[in-house]
Amino acid sequence: MKFLVNGSIAFDLLLSHEGSFLSGIDAKNLDRLSVNYLAQEYKRHHGGVAANIGWNLALLGHSPLLLGAVGSDGADYVKLLASKGVDMSLVETVPDAATATAVIATDIDERQISFFHPGADGRGTLPDFSGFKKDIAYAIMGPRNPMLMLRGGEMCVQHGIPYLFDPGQLVHAFGKDEFRHAVTGSKGLVVNEYEWGLASGKLGWKEGEVVSACGMLITTLGDKGIRLVTKEEDLVIPACKPLKLVNPTGAGDAARAGLLIGLASKWSLREIGRFAAVLGSLLVEQEGTLLDTLDTSMIQKRAKENYGEELPTL
């Protein structure tokens, strides 16, 4: 199946702090916040929401079409993604800018502090993807230039392409009306627990109002699993246990690949959530957000071990 993935293509600088971020924060003096944490580990990886999701979709034999932008330093990354079967034909190159870069610090309790430099993506445009509309089974509008997320959603509605809206940490960048517009046009809002608090406040909507507007609210819960709410069901899928915990970065994007495949395949809500949880568990076992392989037999084995039964045929 072909999937449209609109989002960032970026480099990730991953830092690991062996203590707690809370130990360096004085809650009484947040207006004068000045903190410095020792990062015992430093790694540079390929990343970006669109690239991560697209990579996982390609590893599972699907055809992701990416919408995004890279800078003068992004040619090798484009080639790498294309070599795995990711369609990069609509990805822009901005020659006088750097590729977007995320700096993500994680503490011992999996709290994260992130900074994001949009680079080329901040100057990108949204290409016309109407020529692919008959082939696209599902789409996702992931974090990037907010105007391009909104426009991408509008184009999906125009062409009859179902999409998930995934604002990530950019909730603050949307006005109330445009955020409501994007959610209402989608088939579901995807957030993590923290983002849901921000999104609910920005929208001025409670869970039921979001579900009424778009049909589905999906909240990733970290080590507690994933919650999927529709008008008919409210399910919490327990987390799939990883063999080891190395770094949670990228787990949410892997889960989103599972959501897209499950939704496009018209699986049950429970099956969709389990698939997303299994894929997320594989990512936390490594540094970096791009897996070398995704073996379907291993996915089915892990699903059966954690949930008592295999997933539908992958």
Please provide a written account of the structure.
This protein has 314 residues and is α/β, with parallel strands linked by helices. It has a single domain (2-8, 48-98, 122-307), classed as UDP-N-acetylmuramoyl-L-alanine:D-glutamate ligase, CATH 3.40.1190.20. The chain is built from nine helices and 14 strands. The strands form three sheets. It has an eight-stranded mixed β-sheet, sandwiched between helices. It has a four-stranded mixed β-sheet with strand order 3-2-7-8. Strands 5-6 form a two-stranded parallel sheet. The protein is globular and about 50 Å long. The mean pLDDT is 95.
Record field, number of beta strands: 14
Mean pLDDT value: 95
Helix content: 25-40%
CATH architecture: 3-Layer(aba) Sandwich
Quaternary structure: single chain
- Give, in order, the helices and strands: EEEHEEHEEEEHEHEHHEEEHHH
Low-confidence residue ranges: none
Query: What portion of the residues fall into strands of 2 or more residues?
Result: 15-25%
- Integer tally of domains: 1
| Morphology call | globular
Q: Distance N terminus to C terminus?
A: 12 Å
CATH C-level label: Alpha Beta
Task: Name the CATH superfamily assignment.
Answer: Ribokinase
Structural class by sheet pairing and helices: alpha/beta
Can you tell me the CATH topology?
A: UDP-N-acetylmuramoyl-L-alanine:D-glutamate ligase
Q: Count the DSSP helices.
A: 9
- Please state the CA-atom Rg, rounded to the nearest Å: 19 Å
Q: Which strand order does the major sheet show?
A: 4-1-9-10-11-12-13-14
